[in-house]
């Protein structure tokens, strides 16, 4: 069975939805950022601070190349995974790609806690979010299924994804 891969901007609910989805489908769950933190022994923010974004992207690329070989797993990715086309080619080869979207206002609300997302630790968060979102929007739209999570709980998003997967024949009658 193919993996189910959640992509989307920071604050769109990939981790919480992924965990719920994996539970509902009785599949393993992998959060790529958590895996990177576990394997390096460093918080994502520390990797950015100590080694810079490019280094983080190399680690991310390497971890993606491994998790893309899994099967039957729900995979929550970091928001920047779409920046490298090879990440998406690999993930797409073995998985169904589901993109979680949200309005800029909601993203700002959900990412307000400082110290967690290094790209948003800056003076004008609104401006940064708008710029990054604009740069990436077309990449997030390349998914097999896109869902606006702005007014939905992770539970509702999960149920909606399950309907899509069932209707698309991706669950083969399971769940
Ligand atoms: C990033 C998103 C983060 C994390 C890193 C970079 C991005 O993950 O991978 O801070 O470039 O959008 P979340 O989307 O889970 O916050």
Automatic annotation (TrEMBL):
Keyword set includes Nucleotide-binding: yes
Superkingdom: Bacteria
Subcellular location: Cytoplasm
Cofactor entry: Mg(2+)
Primary enzyme class: transferase
Annotated pathway: Metabolic intermediate biosynthesis; chorismate biosynthesis; chorismate from D-erythrose 4-phosphate and phosphoenolpyruvate: step 5/7
Binding sites annotated in the UniProt record for substrate: 33, 57, 79, 136
Gene Ontology biological-process entries: amino acid biosynthetic process; aromatic amino acid family biosynthetic process; chorismate biosynthetic process
Assigned keywords, A-Z: Amino-acid biosynthesis, Aromatic amino acid biosynthesis, ATP-binding, Cytoplasm, Kinase, Magnesium, Metal-binding, Nucleotide-binding, Transferase
Coarse class of the protein's main subcellular location: cytoplasm
Record-listed E.C. numbers: 2.7.1.71
Binding site for ATP: 11-16, 117
Molecular function terms, GO-annotated: ATP binding; magnesium ion binding; shikimate kinase activity
Cellular component GO terms held in the UniProt record: cytosol
Keyword GTP-binding (UniProt): no
Binding site for Mg(2+): 15
InterPro entries, sorted: P-loop_NTPase, Shikimate/glucono_kinase, Shikimate_kinase/TSH1, Shikimate_kinase_CS
Reactions listed under catalytic activity: shikimate + ATP = 3-phosphoshikimate + ADP + H(+)
Cofactor binding remark: Binds 1 Mg(2+) ion per subunit.
Quaternary structure note: Monomer.
Protein task: Catalyzes the specific phosphorylation of the 3-hydroxyl group of shikimic acid using ATP as a cosubstrate.
Family under the similarity heading: Belongs to the shikimate kinase family.
Protein name: Shikimate kinase
Organism: Sporomusa ovata
């Amino acid at each position: 069975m193919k993996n189910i891969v959640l992509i989307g901007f920071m604050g769109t609910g990939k981790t919480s939805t992924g965990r719920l989805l994996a539970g509902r489908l009785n599949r393993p769950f992998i959060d790529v950022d958590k895996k990177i933190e576990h394997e390096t022994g460093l918080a994502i923010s520390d990797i950015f601070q100590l080694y810079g974004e490019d280094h983080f992207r190399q680690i991310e690329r390497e971890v993606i190349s491994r998790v893309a070989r899994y099967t039957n797993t729900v995979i929550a990715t970091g928001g920047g995974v779409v920046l490298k086309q090879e990440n998406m080619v690999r993930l797409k080869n073995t998985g169904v790609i589901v993109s979680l979207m949200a309005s800029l206002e909601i993203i700002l609300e959900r990412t307000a806690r400082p110290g967690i997302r290094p790209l948003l630790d800056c003076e004008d968060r609104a401006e940064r979010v708008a710029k990054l979102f604009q740069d990436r929007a077309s990449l997030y739209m390349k998914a097999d299924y896109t869902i606006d999570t702005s007014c939905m709980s992770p539970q509702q998003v999960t149920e909606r994804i399950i309907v899509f997967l069932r209707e698309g024949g991706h669950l083969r009658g399971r769940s």
